[in-house]
Amino acid sequence: MIERKCIIIAGEEAGPKSNKMGGIWNVIDAEVKNLAQMLEDGTIEEESVPRIFVVGSYYGHSGSDWNKGLNRITDMTEFDDFVPDEELSMIIEELKVKGIELVVGAIQIKGIEIVYLMFKTNDFCRVVVEYKGEHICLENKIKAEAYDLIGLDSLSFEDLGNRTEYTHYLNLSYAISEFVHTLVSLREETAGAYKDKLISEFASSLMPTLYVSLHCHEFGVFYAIARLKKIGVTINTVATYHATIPGRVAGHLSIKKIRENDSSLGDGAPKNMVTLESLSSYADVVTAVGDSTKKEIKLFYGIDSIVVRNGIDLEIEDIDELLDKKLKCRTKIQELTASKLYNTHHSVELLPEKIIPIFSISRIEIENKGYPDLLDSLLLLDRMVRIEIEAGRLDNNYRVVCFIITAHGPKTNLPENFPIMLNEDILIGEELRIQNMIENRGLECSKLPNGDRYVSAILYPQWLSDHDGGFNMNVDEFMAGCIAGIFPSRYEPFLLTGLEAGKEGTPSIVSKVCGFSDALSTAKRLVMGMGGVLVVDNIDLAYLETIADYALTLDYFIDTYTDDKTKYNFLCQEANLLAKEMNWKEPTKQYYEMLTGTKLK
Questions:
Q1: pTM
Q2: Are strands 508-511 and 484-487 parallel, antiparallel or unpaired?
Q3: Using the 8-state DSSP alphabet, how is residue 437 labeled?
Q4: What average pLDDT is seen over the chain?
């Protein structure tokens, strides 16, 4: 009997990067690459190489994304020309008959083929199918069936403002589950096409016995697991939480809720999304990326989970090569900042080499990401730098610029000298609020040239790329070019961006609430005392103490950078070493064991 494993990794963002910054895509991409690496190097030993599928959404053109503000457009150009084999062709054709269209691509990673199936779900409302003897649109069939299978009452969610998002997740989960169902039943259906029993049994014996596993990242695809369980498709399933919806809504108050065993969801938790998230209970194994998320899953849903932390993969192993990259990127940021400031405000021309760039980057959640704390700490930092300059301990030409990189979505037709030049008409929603917060504190960059301020905050409301209309730098280049990153989150289940900064050899400051801060206690130290990644307590300290600590830790990195380049380079190496230690190999091994039941050495 021929046996073959199929591993399917699913997520709402489980496709090409399109024009989006980071997110679940990075996690899925890392899992796939490390899985391929371990199959290639023998860490995972299988007689037959498992077939790996990545499944997610396809946004073929402007307007096809459920979130019109994001307007994601899927780019499949990175994939090889792919001709599906007979088995996959049969599955695709059967799905088309059911009204499910998809785009297929493939890439080779370490000699292992990874097949990507991107589902078109935005037109399910226009596809007519039959359900219980009636002809209805596929979207309504999916909702009616979900009610019949698990009592998921989509009609009760119709008045909610996020119904389009909910419907997209339900449609995508249905499409993924139908692919799995078709894959699992293919052997039986192919053999059953022969009327002669002996021929049927012979045909069946020639086809491999499939052991299918499904790994779903985040609640948007959890219904796929529930539906497969209810229709009797036996596969191994894992549901991974990167945060919880009630936790996100509670934000920094989630810690209090955990301590007080308060399982109330809160007024802002969308009922439909919470319902989808609770469907992880149908999975064989539920995982959380950190301890706080594990506690939230238990608190809000009564579900036990296993912690499998996120990781990071280093692309540049040689530290000298990384330091060269940092110098090149820093020089670019310094020169562009100086020239854009001069061009915009027609003022004193600053010396590029005296500009000290730092950054913070995240989703645009002002309170959860701690932006008020960051801006207040920058005010304190400005006073500290001013005193150091007046005391003669710091050259009076130095200026500190903190780039706050966050946006509702990608922008086009930006003004010349963006982001130094920020017209209000390009800002929307929370972007405008952050800019007002900057101005209310007097932290505008226009005050830098004449020395009215020595520290400034610059909002960068755009998704970074090499053609973003601002500095035209990718995320890794921008991180590498800054002398430090600061992530003052009040709610942060893991904080992958902290590791991404370390990957680029950039020291960082993280809040105690972030999910990987505990790992820092075991990190190797190259510098005695304060190291390349510093933790600020934003849980137990009073607010003034917390923002003072943010300012003091930033000042430590600035002083080290300006006074002792050798020591600063050691801090960069230490941040990089932490990222190197927290790689994706161990998490991927854990996922593989859960998905296949195979114990790895």
A1: 0.83
A2: parallel
A3: H
A4: 89
